[in-house]
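Folding follows sequence. Below is one example:
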Amino acid sequence: MKLIKQFDIILLLLWYPVIYPNDTLFPSLIIDQNIRVNYTPTVLVYAIDNKDVQKAVKCAVELKRDIVSRSGGHSYEKYGLGGRNNVIVLDLTFVNGITINSEMETAKIGARNRLGNVYNQLNQAGFLIPAGLCPSIGIGGHALGGRKYGLACDSMEIVDAKGEILQVDSILNADLYFALRGAGGGSYGIVTYFVFRIHRTPPQVTYMELAFNRANMTQEYQLFDAFNEVGPLHDDGIALKMRLNKSSLSITGLYLSPRTETLNAMKEFLSKVPEPISIPKFIPQTFYESFETLSKSPNKYEVVNPVHHPNFFKAKSFVVKGKGLTRQAIKVLVDFLNGASCKILASFDLFGGAANVYDSSSSFIHRDALYCIQMESDWEAKDQNTKCTDEINEFGKNFQLNFTSDESYQDFIDRNLDDWQTRYYGNIFGKLVKIKRKYVIQLSSKYPCTGLEKFRYRIIMKYSQL
């Protein structure tokens, strides 16, 4: 592998840590969540602030090298390391400030902050933002909306391909604002800071958990019917997730209200689901306590100071619209899970609320979704990579063709997805390409500006998806 000469970078980057493949620390620093794939960067560069990011980008331009940035290290296909060997990785570990303005109800959050720390610091000030459940995901790659409050990012700071800092909001660089809010994925520059609208935490929320008979197909149909029919009509403060694998079937959820109000709000749904196999849980908690519970972290320390638990996995995603999965689709899915040679979990995230409200300032195309399915195959050893990846890829292709919409969710990035332009970006793909051409001008001459995927691999800058 051809490496950049060390003295070339040292001359340009004397002001912050630079780690090379011959450093004893290097191997441990390029291992993150998914060890199914791995790549070897030319160098790891650790930035402290915007000025460092600017210097690194200008260095990459001068050296005619590709540069990617890494936030949480959760990219399913390792795009946080460039998605291939021999790129400069700009790690944002130290771009981790959080400034809360209680009066304006906003928070400026550095791109490297992980969700566990974000939730913790906002909670101490009495606020929350709509986000996910995994504490170790970096906010930079995750900044998409939740059910009740929707996409909450008001503005961003981004370093473009010329190494210039741009302020991005609904007025300044509005076209870039549109692209980043829903189709960012790191393709347009390195976002270093986000300004979020934050929301007062309710005095009490209710965590919900229900388990059902996985072996009874009639009851599985009944649960899906309730999820399809009643789920979308819930109060916007309710979030529900269904999980299905070879041995279990469950619903977990959260309502931003006390237990009595939760039971009342869930009454119709509960009247339609099959009899649970254990006593349903409706547990009053604080909002932060509910995050601790839903995160499934082994201890409270790891919620705030999350670490990766590397494993081999491959994920697919499907966006379901209309009336939901049919009985035939459910049976095909259940039969596949029963017969799969690798361990596979299907998760169903119910949409609704702000997530289904059209927003002309956002490039998120899945506004009319009923729910999103994530299927993840996990295995124990590298020699199973091909078998398990091929198994879920083949099923996913046929399942999407026959039973779901043609859309997939870009945060569950999938390198093997066909027609990714349509599945991730729909009919706005052409608009996104034009925006990309406007803001990303330093391209490798090997590839012309013909599409976002080529940009993803050969562009001067690529921001980690998760």
Q: What stands out?
A: Confidence is low (pLDDT under 50) at residues 1-15, 144-150, 442-466. The first strand starts at residue 18 and ends at 19. The domain at 205-285 is CATH 3.30.70.100 (Alpha-Beta Plaits). The two ends are 27 Å apart (CA to CA).
